[in-house]
Specification:
Strand content of chain B: over 45%
Shape of chain B: globular
Number of strands of chain B: 12
Order of helices and strands of chain A: EEEEEEEEEEE
Strand content of chain A: over 45%
Radius of gyration of chain B: 14 Å
Structural class of chain B: mainly beta
Oligomer: heterodimer
Chain lengths: 112, 115
């Protein structure tokens, strides 16, 4: 079974702090994604990566950056957290030959 | 541009009754269609997908979905609902013409099964 882990389940940060969210997968998948989930809005794609050191902007990249130095790890960075970034953040992966995405448990981030 | 619509924020069904969660989509070319389920405080879990072939797709936990090209729909169904089916359900679509195209998710439908 694919295992996707996220560094924290719950996180509370203050406005202006730099925030790191980490995602690690153990299935050697090439593709990794970061979404945020907000009530009534579904999942919105922030950034994705098809390979190490490669990144592509999703639909809502503003205020975020990402890093993929190793194939198994995809980090989401909030350079200067703001209250409107309070949300549930979900990481997902899938391999080259499948469209099925595997999700991590999510990180609920609160920015005060 | 791709889009997915889930017209119902919430669906309420009595246990033992059939359930339907609606999904319509818009995509250029042939679609890849997915249903995911999210239980409280959990990530999304894959339920089923339509890529090609038979329009009726069977998935996990007794769920199935019917692809209807003329109505651009992919409704999720189950003949007899269980209380444990109560969760948030997401429909998703990807265009098949490019492996680099994004998967777009709907806004979600909360399914509530009453005993």
């Amino acid at each position: 079974d694919v295992k996707v882990t996220q560094s924290s389940r719950y996180l509370v940060k203050r406005t202006g702090e730099k925030v790191f969210l980490e995602c690690v997968q153990d299935m050697d998948h090439e593709n990794m994604f970061w979404y945020r989930q907000d009530p009534g809005l579904g999942l919105r794609l922030i950034y994705f990566s098809y390979d190490v050191k490669m990144k592509e902007k999703g639909d809502i990249p503003e205020g975020y950056s990402v890093s993929r130095e190793k194939k198994e790890r995809f980090s989401l960075i909030l350079e200067s957290a703001s209250t409107n970034q309070t949300s549930m953040y979900l990481c997902a992966t899938h391999g080259l030959n499948t469209d099925t995405q595997y999700f991590g448990p999510g990180t609920r981030l609160t920015v005060l | 541009a791709q889009s997915v619509a889930q017209p119902e924020d919430q669906v309420n069904v009595a246990e033992g009754n059939p359930l339907t969660v609606k999904c319509t989509y818009s995509v250029s070319g042939n679609p890849y269609l997915f249903w995911y389920v999210q239980y409280p405080n959990r990530g999304l879990q894959f339920l089923l997908k339509y890529i090609t072939g038979d329009n009726l797709v069977k998935g996990s936990y007794g769920f199935e979905a019917e692809f209807n090209k003329s109505q651009t729909s992919f409704h999720l169904k189950k003949p007899s609902a269980l209380v444990s089916d109560s969760a948030l359900y997401f429909c998703a679509v990807r265009a098949s013409y490019s492996s680099a195209s994004k998967i777009i998710f709907g806004s979600g439908t909360r399914l509530s099964i009453r005993p």
